[in-house]
Design brief:
Strand content: 15-25%
Distance between the termini: 22 Å
CATH architecture: 3-Layer(aba) Sandwich
Strand order of the largest sheet: 3-2-1-6-9-10-11
Structural class: alpha/beta
Number of helices: 4
Shape: globular
CATH superfamily: NagB/RpiA/CoA transferase-like
Largest sheet: 7 strands, mixed
Order of helices and strands: HHEHEEEEEEEHEEE
Number of strands: 11
Radius of gyration: 16 Å
Helix content: 10-25%
Number of domains: 1
CATH topology: Rossmann fold
Length: about 190
């Protein structure tokens, strides 16, 4: 299937989830995330999950990572709609969040963090395939960002659903995941 077809299908699948389903799936994703054999992580970039979009929650994963390393830097994105780029801001208690044009919470301002400092990226997605390619919301922000990261950055998607067999319209700009965590499984992709 194409990205456009998958976007429609998986947005509808998310809409059909109950609050109970989402809570249960988030708990199972956390349990599976804890099974990952990760190196020591100093800095993690995470999206701020949107309840409106029924995205997998990252807050419990962040708390788990903070427990493992109390000095870990948590970084959240701010989108520049005009340039198509993402800036990365250190996220702590003093950061004020505002809602952007897409209805997503992002930092109003704060301390910028460079891509080369990031060890792990939690990546939003709608669907993914068995090769580790993902379907996002179609703007290409994360692919541009990931292309600027250090080569060994760990790219991890979170999904309530299992992979599709193949995304038919992958391009040279699409960057595959290292892992995708679902409620039932950890998918690992050899790159």
């Amino acid at each position: 299937m194409t990205k456009k077809e998958l976007r429609y299908i998986f947005k509808e699948k998310r809409k059909a989830l109950s609050v109970h389903d989402i809570e249960k799936f988030n708990d199972l994703i956390l349990i599976n995330f804890q099974k990952l054999k990760l190196p020591f992580i100093n800095c993690v970039h995470t999206y701020v999950a949107s309840l409106k979009l029924a995205e997998p929650d990252t807050a419990t994963i962040v708390r788990y990572l903070q427990f493992a390393n109390p000095l870990i830097k948590i970084v959240i994105p701010k989108i520049d709609i005009h340039s198509g780029n993402i800036s990365h801001y250190h996220f702590d208690e003093g950061v004020e969040l505002i809602t952007n044009a897409f209805g997503i919470d992002e930092p109003k301002e704060g301390n910028l963090i460079k891509e080369d400092q990031i060890d792990l990226v939690l990546i939003p997605l709608l669907a993914f395939d068995r090769k580790g390619f993902r379907v996002g919301f179609g703007k290409g922000y994360y692919d541009k960002f990931l292309a600027r990261c250090k080569p060994n950055v760990i790219k991890t998607g979170l999904s309530f659903f299992d992979p599709v067999d193949e995304i038919n319209d992958i391009s040279g700009f699409d960057i595959p995941l290292n892992f995708c965590i679902t409620p039932t499984e950890i998918f690992s992709f050899s790159l």
